[in-house]
Amino acid sequence: MRLNLYISKTGVASRRGADSLIEHGRIKVNGVTAVLGMQITKNDVVTLDNNIIEPLEEKFYILLNKPVGIVSTTNTAISGNMITFMNFKEKIFPVGRLDKDSHGLILLTNDGSIVNKILRVENGHDKEYHVTLNKPYDDYFIETMTSGVEIYNPVAHEKQMTMPSILKPLDERTFSLTIRQGLNRQIRRMADSLGYRVESLERVRIMHLTLGDLPVGYWRYLTSDELKELNDKINH
Predict the structure, then answer these.
(1) Which of 30, 63, 145, 227 is the most buried if burial means most Cβ atoms within 10 Å?
(2) Does residue 99 have an active-site annotation?
(3) First to last CA, the chain
(4) Based on C-alpha coordinates, what's the Rg of the chain?
(5) Is 146 in the same domain as 129?
(6) Do 110 and 140 lie in a common domain?
(7) Given 13, 33, 52, which residue is the final one in a domain?
(8) Residue 160: inside a domain
(9) pTM of the model
(10) Where are the alpha helices (DSSP H) in 92-216?
């Protein structure tokens, strides 16, 4: 990499400004005063006025349409882990989880500052799912799912009531469910407690972020508009 490009990535100066710093002898590479046009490697130590400077970390915000069978973990020792599946060049991690048997939208990033802001229940950020059951549901099921269901929370080792949700029927066995919690296998446990089994569970939306026409197994970067709206919502 050209030295002036490296310096610009540290945020201390533009490429032209970096050339000026080099011309004035303020930049050293491995303790030796740098010259214009130098090429450096990742192993070289660059200093400005004898203080080490390093590139700022580039932030990545990725939307993946996760297939069934992929595990929401960064542990590459686990078969079907998300990191091996993504094969992304930089270190990233999922924001929240989507269980192995479910598919749909999951956000990945290397920006740890946004994770709790998105996931914390008190921030009230919607997550929408399309759920298909093993049999037709009735009005009692709709009423109970929307008002709250008592389920076992294996993390807290106790039973608890789920928060109110929004249910919109799609057909006799399928519905859209919008929740603000993220308890372990929450929707499956809610349905099971009412005598139903979830046959298909797809997350289609997190806040304003949607799958759109993104095929299963594919990913894309968030657009600048999506990222701006995300920052506006989590930093309000």
Answers:
(1) 145
(2) yes
(3) 39
(4) 24
(5) yes
(6) yes
(7) 52
(8) yes
(9) 0.79
(10) 115-119, 139-147, 186-193
